[in-house]
Amino acid sequence: MIPLTIALIVTGAACAVFAIIATFAIQANNRLERSLEEALAGKEHLKAENGTLLHNEAVMQAQIDGLKVALKAEVERLQRESTFKQKTIDHLSVKVDEIRAQNRDLEEINSDLLKAQVAMRAQLAEQRKTVPIKRVRKTDTSGGEQQP
Prior knowledge:
single chain, mainly alpha, 87% helix
């Protein structure tokens, strides 16, 4: 009987130890389940946030693509404008050179004309010296006396 009692006591002790171990295992399992639920909730939150970020990225990429197109169009417009302005500057430079050449020609002509004018005045002065001066009496038209 004693061996049976010892066996029962050992069996009871083993059951108690298993019960304690099972209690700790159940508590640990409950903690792990709560952690798993929290992790899954966090995962769902991160998935939702990731979806929002992906959407925002797509929107921003679309904006960037639109800005690239607009920038390319603006660069092309500015290049055309620059080309036009350069052609205009080149044309005006040619015109300025032509006007400067004409101005030099006109200055030479003006200089020649001034020389000719000076020569003609000198010639006229010489001719005046040789031409006799005619004196005319002035008459008073108011009916008064005439002066000699």
